[in-house]
Give the backbone structure.
Amino acid sequence: MQKRRAAISMIFIAVILLSGVFWTGYEKSMKKPLFLLRKNSYAAVREHIHVFGGDASENMTLIISGSDAAIIDTGCVLADNSEHRSVNRLKKLIDEKQLDVRNIIYTHYHLDHISNTAKFISNESKGSVEFYDPLNTTDGQIIKMGTCVFRILHTPGHAGSRGGHISIELPGENILVAGDVLYTNFIPCMQYEDSPRAYMETLKRIGEEKYSLIIPGHGNILNTAYTVKRPMAYMKRLEKQVKRVIASGGDLAEARRRIKLEACYTDGEGMNLKDPIQKEFHRDNIRQMFAELTGESLGEPEGMIRP
Ligand SMILES: [Zn+2]
């Protein structure tokens, strides 16, 4: 009897250990980019869905149905006004395939996502292009273009005081074009007066959908679970630590002194957490979280305007 019990225990332990090995392997595989989108690079994630990585690592997505095309976000303008190679490449593809741009969708009104629209509209096509953005769409709204269907999701958390934010679901493909509520090369950014709680709800909602691909606002296309998991873990740690500072009577300055980025974003693989932009996002995220948890208004954002 005892031998049998020992054998069962051994099997049980072996199963636990083996599942650990598989789990670790699975976790590791999630970190590998499914599509690399280095500066000015390009990926066809489906035959009719093309993603262009711009100079500010911003992603522009082209969706094709027959001879009709939709563009989600039109990219940034370079500071020195030099040629934007990704925008040219996108334009070239449209010309080569002789596509008519029918829909232009902005995930949000930040300059790195809306600045090249004029390049995609000709005098002849002017009247026939439909524009969609966070202000003229409703949550759940369906837009159709030939055989393609777009479903608009209102996804607050990044651009609150600057017109809101939407993500675009392609239900037929199980793909989400997330916009800037998801980055894979930056930590979350709530610099624009958005609510941390609303942002966490957005992450939860996206995470529950289990898309087969998420195209982030900036950065490579990674496994979808991993794309959502990292910012969510960061937000939870940030909330916990800010609560701790408030409970001990600390103010915002103390929260910023005590709460280190590396302690909140513990899985920064593929990211440079020493980058001043990341530090600045973190400083402002602390500020947003502090304001929400205390109900205090902390005035204008202090950071510079970034992606
Ligand atoms: Zn951006």
